[in-house]
Design goal:
Blueprint: E1 2-5, E2 10-11, E3 17-18, E4 23-26, H1 28-36
Antiparallel strand pairs: 1-4, 2-3
């Protein structure tokens, strides 16, 4: 099982609906289908920690961060 964040709304095989931004646990086959449909993004390869580049608004805010 893999825990992923949804980029778009999704309804699972049991009819349970999930909103964009929710985290869900899915198996590898379901993950592949969700990625192909653009419902979840691809894997992140960078670490968003103190030395990670990150994306605007998602920079590391930990002890070595520069943001207040």
């Amino acid at each position: 099982m893999v825990y992923v964040r949804l980029e778009k709304e999704w309804t699972d095989g049991n009819g349970v609906g999930y909103s964009a931004g929710e985290m869900v646990d899915v198996d590898a086959a379901t993950l592949a289908k969700l990625q192909a449909a653009g419902i979840v993004g691809g894997e992140r390869t960078e670490w968003l920690g103190p030395t990670g580049g990150g994306q605007e608004g998602t920079d590391w805010l930990g002890p070595t961060g520069t943001k207040p």
